[in-house]
TrEMBL record:
SUPFAM superfamilies: Citrate synthase. It comes from the Bacteria. It catalyses: oxaloacetate + acetyl-CoA + H2O = citrate + CoA + H(+). Pathway: Carbohydrate metabolism; tricarboxylic acid cycle; isocitrate from oxaloacetate: step 1/2. The active site is at H270, D327. The keyword Transit peptide does not apply. It comes from Uabimicrobium amorphum. Transmembrane segments: none annotated. One of its GO terms (biological process) is tricarboxylic acid cycle. This is Citrate synthase. One of its GO terms (molecular function) is citrate synthase activity.
Length: 393
């Protein structure tokens, strides 16, 4: 064990070489395949970015049209899958439902699970990106006891998702183009973030040559945790608590600084960004605009801004280089659009899906790849003799 370097949380360990996403944590730079995140948000679309991440280049017009039309055409799920939702409790968290049904897709496409067959992999990629919105919308409908709404293939990706969530059989939800665009941009912002916890999970599970549905289900589970994607839900819950407490953000800052209190300021801090998170910057800037657009005046936005200001001028946060991350303001936009709080991490999962697929594909295409199998430093007892139950103290 003397030869093993211990690196808790892999903070200083490179697990792979990657040409997908570039992050410069000191300068707050994020690029997908060399393109600045700011430019992609302005000029591209989520499905185009998905192609870019997975296949390495922006798609030609024909490639993009085919990819989009394939995704649109595969948005339905097998009717039997609805029965799974009947069996889940209504109070279940949608991330639990999503990971379960995504994994169960591997039971429906058994002939296409060969990870070495490019055509089968393409179909799996299309099915995943397409069906994740339908399955996520079903999870929401289940939780509020409403009938499921089928996809409408005449709508773009984000609009179709909102239609399935918010339409009811007696009334179609009218999607405002500006809101659909805002959601599409949020998906782009979440689409990849190099070797984060869920991407690493996908790579690790994939390294055993498990099928892609299984790998993505594992990624969804990793994302669910409050220190990762689950933080977006926790941020809003924290802001609501502050509101209930009369807006006393100082009390929450004090709790976050208290080392005997496990509470952390949710939506603050990042393993790589030590100056600012460029995604948070973009989201904060669009927050006011989107809320104005929808005509929402959310008091939580004011609380969030006050909390951010107070934290940034506090020695504890400044000395540890803790800044708002992607999750700090995204929930305020989701809330304004009408998404319930427990769906926020599902939105993150939909956005992150192309990144997971890209990381999985890159891992498999590496000719030198090995099964992920870290070592350990054993700290348990040395060899000892078994004691019969009656002689144990
Ligand atoms: N509130 C209070 N203290 C914090 C926070 C926070 N949000 N984040 C880090 N710290 C402190 C931490 O206690 C430690 O202090 P000390 O040096 O005195 O022991 C120091 O800052 C370094 O923290 P760390 O835990 O070693 O940093 P990490 O790189 O292991 O963790 C993190 C990164 C994101 C898990 C952490 O900052 C955190 O828990 N943040 C809150 C949860 C959150 O917002 N997560 C979303 C991350 S971005 C999107 C995503 O990945 O999904």
């Amino acid at each position: 064990s003397g030869l093993i370097a211990l690196d808790e949380g892999f903070a200083n360990t490179g697990g792979c070489q990657s040409s997908i996403t570039f992050i410069n944590g000191e300068e707050g730079i994020l690029r997908y395949r060399g393109y600045a995140i700011e430019e992609l948000c302005q000029k591209s679309s989520f499905l185009e970015v998905a192609w870019l991440l997975i296949y390495g280049e922006l798609p030609s017009k024909d490639q993009r049209d085919k990819f989009v039309s394939d995704i649109v055409r595969h948005s339905m799920v097998d009717e039997d899958i609805r029965k799974f939702y009947e069996a889940f409790p209504r109070t279940a968290h949608p991330m639990a439902l999503l990971s379960s049904v995504i994994c169960s897709l591997s039971t429906y496409y058994q002939d296409e699970l060969d990870i070495n067959d490019e055509d089968a992999v393409y179909m799996t990629i299309v099915r995943l990106i397409s069906k994740i919105t339908t399955l996520a919308a079903y999870a929401y409908k289940k939780s509020i006891g409403q009938p499921f709404v089928y996809p409408d293939n005449s709508l773009d990706y984000a609009s179709n998702f909102m239609h399935m969530l918010f339409s009811v059989p007696c009334e179609s939800y009218e999607v405002q183009p500006a809101i659909a665009k805002a959601l599409d941009q949020l998906f782009i912002l979440h689409a990849d973030h190099e070797q984060n916890c869920s991407a690493t999970t996908v790579r690790v599970v994939g390294s055993s040559e498990a099928n892609l549905f299984a790998c993505i289900a594992a990624g969804i589970c990793a994302l669910w945790g409050p220190l990762h994607g689950g933080a977006n839900q926790k941020v809003i819950e924290m802001l609501m608590n502050i509101q209930r407490d009369g807006g006393d953000s100082q009390k929450y800052l004090a709790k976050a600084k208290d080392k005997s209190d496990p509470f952390r300021l949710m939506g603050f801090g990042h393993r790589v960004y030590k100056n600012f998170d460029p995604r948070a910057k973009i989201i904060k800037a669009s927050c006011d605009e989107i809320l104005n657009n929808i005509g929402v005046n959310d008091p939580l936005l004011k609380i969030a801004k006050e909390l951010e200001e107070a934290a940034l001028s506090d020695e504890y946060f400044a000395s540890r280089k803790l800044y708002p991350n992607v999750d700090f303001y995204s929930g305020i936009i989701y809330r304004a659009i009408g998404f319930p709080t427990n769906m926020f991490t599902v939105l993150f999962a939909i956005g992150r899906l192309p990144g997971w697929i890209a990381q999985w594909r890159e891992m498999l295409k590496n000719p030198g790849r090995k099964i992920a199998r870290p070592r350990q430093i054993y700290t348990g007892p040395n060899l000892r003799e078994f004691v019969d139950a009656e002689n144990r103290t």
